[in-house]
């Protein structure tokens, strides 16, 4: 997958060099050529092709969190462990871990 992206970026770079060195070409035209014909499409393609890997990583992370939650509940503790109120020293400050007053 990466070899195709590298090859396309090389082609777009050579198109940009040809644009910049042409007698009627400009450097701005070369930059626009590289961005619109090279970097933009390759970035979009890599994002689309990377979607299955991102989904797999999210599922693995969720499974790991579920396993940790399951392990903590079998130890006799509440999910997330014991929570104590937060003392700020101000009487008008929100109390508790969720930032609410009870």
Walk me through what this model shows.
- The protein has helices spanning 2-21, 27-49, 51-74.
- Helix 1 packs antiparallel against helix 2.
- It has a domain at 2-71.
- By secondary structure, it is mainly α.
- The radius of gyration is 27 Å and the shape is elongated.
- It has 3 helices and no strands.
- The mean pLDDT is 83.
Q: How much beta, percentage-wise?
A: under 5%
Please work out how many helical segments DSSP would assign. Answer: 3
Task: Describe the largest sheet.
Answer: none
User: Can you tell me the overall shape?
Assistant: elongated
Question: SS-based structural class?
Answer: mainly alpha
Whole-number average pLDDT?
83
Task: Compute the number of strand runs.
Answer: 0
Low-confidence stretches: none
Query: What is the first-to-last residue Cα distance?
Result: 55 Å
Helical content (DSSP H or I, runs of 4+):
55-70%
- Provide the succession of SSEs: HHH
Determine Rg (CA atoms, Å).
27 Å
What descriptive keywords fit this protein?
102 residues, 66% helix, mainly alpha
Provide a compact summary of the structure:
The protein is mainly alpha-helical and 102 residues long.
SSE order and pairing:
Elements: H1 2-21, H2 27-49, H3 51-74
Helix pairs in contact: 1-2
